[in-house]
Design brief:
- The chain is of the alpha+beta class and 232 residues long.
- The protein has one domain (32-195): Cupredoxins -  blue copper proteins (Immunoglobulin-like), CATH 2.60.40.
- It is 22% helix and 20% strand.
- It has 3 helices and 12 strands.
- The chain has helices at residues 5-23, 148-155, 205-228, and strands at residues 30-38, 47-48, 51-52, 59-64, 68-69, 72-74, 97-98, 108-112, 119-122, 134-137, 170-172, 191-194.
- Strands 1, 2, 4, 8, 11 and 12 form a 6-stranded mixed beta sheet that branches. Strands 3-10-9-6 form a 4-stranded mixed beta sheet, with helices on one face.
- The longest helix has 24 residues, at 205-228.
- It is globular and about 40 Å long.
- The chain starts with a helix and ends with a helix.
Length: 232
């Protein structure tokens, strides 16, 4: 019995959607990690993305591109100045992360999101903050006076204050592949990684089943597409 190409491609598209939905599920026991690229190979003073939404318990991992950048927390009222730690506020500073274009690995700095209030941050290198290198986690909603653009306007006339020693996060000098990797900003979509407090835990039966499902479904999908070219 022969099927039309249209019918096969329709089935293949439905299967692809099913595979994607299965892959987007966060397995139990894992945490969500948001990746932020710090600078790029073209030398732009920018974070990618500059704004993101994160829940308590999520992690934000900064990937540093050439040449020398940093990440420091501030407040909206004190642009380009480090936040003063308190009982309700946790500050962080990555320290300076010099990266050469010839480096094969890029350093990373990872923080844990432990509050729902906006987390403003900036690059404390030179005048990077004054030139607009700033970002925010969980930006305020419905407040036209507390936006990232307003923060940058204030930063343009501020003096950069460099925090003390690195603190408030975990630095990995040998992180992902470095500048030899993507020419363009990394995909800002969320990814998931194993809980760093228990990285040696083997995958559960449900995780293994999910992986097997995705692999099998992908095989069927590729087979369906290939067969479509030989059917009428």
């Amino acid at each position: 019995m022969l099927f039309s190409k249209a019918a096969i491609f329709t089935a293949a598209a439905a299967l692809a959607s099913l595979v994607q939905a299965q892959g987007e599920q966060t397995p139990e026991g894992q945490v969500k990690v948001h990746v932020v690229q710090v600078g790029d190979r073209e030398g732009n003073l920018k974070f990618y993305p500059e704004e993101l939404e994160a829940e308590v318990g999520d992690m934000v991992q900064f990937h540093f591109y050439p040449r020398n950048h940093s990440v420091a927390r501030s407040t909206f009222a004190e642009a380009c100045n480090p936040v003063e730690p308190s009982a309700n506020t946790t500050g962080f500073f990555s320290g300076f992360m010099p990266v050469q274009e010839t480096d094969t690995f890029m350093p990373t700095f990872t923080i844990l999101v432990n509050e729902t209030t906006p987390i403003w941050y900036y690059c404390a290198t030179g005048r990077h903050c004054q030139n607009g290198m700033a970002g925010v986690i969980n930006p305020p909603k419905g407040n036209a006076e507390r936006t990232l653009e307003k923060y940058k306007e204030a930063a343009a006339t501020s003096n950069t204050v460099v925090p003390g020693p690195p603190s408030g996060g975990e630095t990995d000098p040998d992180g992902p592949e470095g500048p030899e990797g993507p020419e363009t900003p990394v995909n800002p979509d969320n990814t998931t990684t194993p809980n760093p407090t228990n990285t040696n835990t083997p995958p559960s039966e449900s995780d293994s089943a999910a992986s097997s499902f995705v692999a099998s479904a992908a095989t069927v999908l590729l087979g369906a597409v290939a067969v479509a070219f030989f059917l009428v």
